[in-house]
Amino acid sequence: MQVENFGEYIRHLREKSEMPLRKLAAILDIDQSTLSKLERGERPVNRQMLPIVAKTFNVDEKQLVIMFMSKQLACQLAGEKYAKDILHAAEEQINNQIKKKN
Questions:
Q1: Rg (CA), the chain
Q2: Residue 85, domain member (yes or no)
Q3: How far apart are the first and last CA of the chain?
Q4: Which residue, 27, 38, 40, 81, has fewest beta-carbon neighbours within 10 Å?
Q5: Does residue 1 lie in a domain region?
Q6: 45 in a structural domain
Q7: pTM of the model
Q8: Domain that holds residue 10
Q9: 41, 5 in Cβ contact below 8 A?
Q10: In the 8-state DSSP scheme, what is residue 78?
Q11: Helical (H) or strand (E) element with 15
Q12: What CATH number does the domain containing 37 carry?
């Protein structure tokens, strides 16, 4: 499923499970109005919600995190002339940080 924002994906999962908005809002410990805004893309999804969403809808947390973070990066780099070069440089920095930890 292709979605414009991550909140739309959460709405897709919720509706697919036939879960009312109020129930998911309670599980996430947020107001219904806040969840509605998240689903419409009017408020950003909080990274800390991902494990709860994954468990609630029985989806792979790793894939959920990858989808979320890649959308975050894509939004930040949208319109950047050197987006691919920036991603490549970031990958090198991540690899260096991993090497330092090991």
A1: 16
A2: yes
A3: 37
A4: 81
A5: no
A6: yes
A7: 0.81
A8: 6-101
A9: yes
A10: T
A11: helix 6-16
A12: 1.10.260.40
